[in-house]
């Protein structure tokens, strides 16, 4: 067992030794192979090193070629775009020439406007193409410059080619600078812009204000509400707007504005000239004072109408056109400035006439025209400030307010001086010799009645309130318009009353002062009652101030004129018992009675006047009641003594008294005067309401020529 195990172990050892010998042999062979591989690796490494040394220059050339390719591509792309822009500009120029030819031969206005719009669009396209060329030329040349510099720096090509490229680049730069400038400022674009300026002016001239002045032949038609008309069609306005924007985009904004302002000013002025405003040539205060009153009245009325027409029609249309055409320009408010330039000279002409009227002589009849002017400005104030809005219209609005101030000052001065003129006539002018109502009283009453009508009372009250604010300040306590006007009118009425009292004291006849006061106060009361003047002052005021004084003066007249006649028959009877003596005494009283009656009749026929028919009728009735009953009683009482001789019956005496009062309806020269008709309402353009006051229209004296 043991021997077998030993044998088995030895066999294993031998087998292991045999494996070791085999392994050693394999290791020896592997070592040889490794040595051979090392030799091969060394050979490959040497070969690679040689190849690397040979490939290195090619690698540098490859990198340079890529860099050059990048720079060339960067330069070629903008160059191609630039060439495309040149082609576009060339095509637009050809199209522009074609459109220009078509435009020159087109006669139909509507078709011509459409072609003109296409022409403007083509000009804009050409301008855009030239702008692209101007914008892209510098970047393109800069990229070519980079390529040349790269070639020169890297020596990617020979020196000869590099120099040729440099010369070409310099030539190209100079060519672009000269060619592009020529295309923009000396080429078709410049010519097209000149054509657009001409078309712009022509189209603006063709836009006229319609219906201005066509209704002037009819006096009633001028009172119609002004109608704002469109100056052009939508297409025409659109073309003008596009032309303005095109001119502005090509540095022609100043030219565009000059054309617009010049043409539209002429058009607006020409439209207003169709109204024949020749009166505006007379505008200084001295020239206005030299005008006939009727001519000045007409001129002021026309000024009011034309001023309103200019503001509400002409300037509204012009402002709208300015905004439509110039409102899209980069300068946002340029259109407002243009509109103000158009209106400024025209408004200056209107303003200077109004200022001349306000500064001219302050004559009483001028008050109503001044109030009409002031009222028209007040009604226009809001619309005027809206039309001339913003900083651009500030100067015109200031002058508008200054004119209003002048009118307020002039109106108040005329009114207050009117009262002073009434009192100022107390010296140097005798009252009417027959005690009738003087022209001044008639003029003053009708003047104040006219002033208190609805047309003039409101503006007059506003003038008085404005004047009060100037004097007392806006924070002071102000009277109502009605109270202000009432106080002012009352002051003038009191001045008139003082004038009447002063005149009455200059009569030498004892009866005439009472007739004069009675006539004047009755006239004032009757002409004022049931009118706006009477309503303003109040019925109680009118009765107390005028009616009661007239009635008192009537009583005093009756007592002074007819009292002595009545007292002749009321004297004590004779104490004589002799019948003959008593008869003679009674008859003597009757003779004295009729002698006195004849004297009274003669005085009334030749020197007394009671023009008012109602007052005359009342006095006649009162006098009949005073005289006839006393006379009738006297006849009845002494009828036995007076028998055998005929005397005037009471009925006949009543007729004679009536004849006395019928004879008082006279003028100062004794001629019969026609019955006064009911008071006539004065026309708007006339202050005088009675035929004999027409001479009062234009007084040159210090006082009112009455």
Automatic annotation (TrEMBL):
<keyword id="KW-0268">Exocytosis</keyword>
<dbReference type="Pfam" id="PF20669">
    <property type="entry name" value="Exo70_N"/>
</dbReference>
<feature type="compositionally biased region" description="Basic and acidic residues">
    <location>
        <begin position="673"/>
        <end position="682"/>
    </location>
</feature>
<dbReference type="Pfam" id="PF03081">
    <property type="entry name" value="Exo70_C"/>
</dbReference>
<comment type="similarity">
    <text>Belongs to the EXO70 family.</text>
</comment>
<dbReference type="InterPro" id="IPR016159">
    <property type="entry name" value="Cullin_repeat-like_dom_sf"/>
</dbReference>
<keyword id="KW-0653">Protein transport</keyword>
<keyword id="KW-0813">Transport</keyword>
<comment type="function">
    <text>Component of the exocyst complex.</text>
</comment>
<feature type="domain" description="Exocyst complex subunit Exo70 C-terminal">
    <location>
        <begin position="303"/>
        <end position="654"/>
    </location>
</feature>
<protein>
    <recommendedName>
        <fullName>Exocyst subunit Exo70 family protein</fullName>
    </recommendedName>
</protein>
<dbReference type="InterPro" id="IPR046364">
    <property type="entry name" value="Exo70_C"/>
</dbReference>
<feature type="region of interest" description="Disordered">
    <location>
        <begin position="664"/>
        <end position="689"/>
    </location>
</feature>
<dbReference type="InterPro" id="IPR004140">
    <property type="entry name" value="Exo70"/>
</dbReference>
